[in-house]
Amino acid sequence: MKKFVYTAMTVLAVLSLAACQGGKKEAAETTAQAATEDNSGIGVDGDSSVAGPVDISNMQSFQATVQKLDGKNLTVEYVDGTSLTLDTTDAFVNPAWELMPGDEVEIFYNGDEGSDIPADGAKVAEVVMSVPYEYVSDDFSAEPQVYGEITKLSDDSITIREDEGINTDDGPQDGVEYTFKIPSYATTIGKAKVGTYAQVLYLGKLSSDDAKAYRICTEDKLEGDESEVFEIKGTLAQFKDGIIYLKTDEGEVFCFTIDGDEKLAKVAADSIDKKVKISYTDSIRMRVSTCDGIKFVK
């Protein structure tokens, strides 16, 4: 029996989350590598909606990789290896993209034309996400999951006996039972019941009380079209700077970019404070995933 693995190395809506190993995983990794090489990520040559309200038309800019963020002091590494710390006190940084080491960013500043980078300690006007750390990190190359027989099932929890564990120190072990909470935003594909096999994608630490099954897909649905659909339910709490903030019944907030889609922007703006189901193309483990559809929930 083959175990299906979901890859999250997607760059925007170029590739949907894959449901099996092999060609799709290789394509996802190739896409992520290409985005890193040409720095054409969201906000630079891609989704302008991620950029902020700053008028950058007459500003200088450069691309760099985030090393550290200490309050308003942002330390980055330039392409030639130069490390400099910049003052972001008055800069616009989209709050949904809370900067972290490894992010590739585009930095805008007021400076003399012809200068490659500003002086160390200089104030900058805007920091725009280019390629998020998640798109190029091995940590996000596959969704945490268990696969095996459902041994217990209730409205708010599911227990799976792992059938094909990766047997690493922090991964699922063959024959071990794992219990997960089922939150309000979880999606179930197929008819889950005790005795059937299923794949569970989860958030949190395996074997801990905070482990949550956010997607359950029964074995008979794993190779069908339904397994390609990824959705999450909640209240559309806010839509700002091209980012959707979805609040769940448990109070958790998940963020999604509309990827510059004007139709989605209108639907999102009209859906404030309404119950919706958002379909997305990359992992909800990311700081910001990519929304590709919004449906009202009655």
Quick summary:
By secondary structure, this protein is mostly beta strands. Helices cover 8% and strands 36% of the residues.
Specify Rg, calculated over alpha carbons.
21 Å
Number of helices: 2
Number of strands: 17
Strand adjacency order, main sheet? 3-2-1-5-6-4
Beta-sheet strand percentage? Answer: 35-45%
What class do helices, strands and sheet pairing give?
A: mainly beta
Amino-to-carboxy terminus distance: 38 Å
Which spans of ≥5 residues are poorly predicted at pLDDT below 50?
A: 1-49
Which word captures the global form? globular
Order of helices and strands: HEEEEEEEEEEEEEEEHEE
Biggest sheet descriptor: 6 strands, mixed
Kindly state the mean pLDDT as a whole number? 82
What portion of residues is helical? Answer: under 10%
Topology readout:
Blueprint: H1 23-38, E1 60-70, E2 73-78, E3 83-87, E4 92-93, E5 104-109, E6 126-131, E7 145-153, E8 157-162, E9 177-181, E10 187-189, E11 197-203, E12 212-218, E13 231-240, E14 243-247, E15 253-257, H2 262-269, E16 275-280, E17 288-296
Parallel strand pairs: 4-6, 10-12, 15-17
Antiparallel strand pairs: 1-2, 1-5, 2-3, 5-6, 7-8, 7-11, 8-9, 11-12, 13-14, 13-16, 14-15, 16-17
How would you describe the overall organization of this protein?
A hairpin with a 5-residue loop joins β14 and β15 (253-257). Strands 3-2-1-5-6-4 form a six-stranded mixed beta sheet, with no helix packed on it. Helices cover 8% and strands 36% of the residues. The radius of gyration is 21 Å and the shape is globular. The protein is mainly beta. It has two helices and 17 strands. Residues 1-49 have low confidence and may be disordered. The two termini are 38 Å apart.
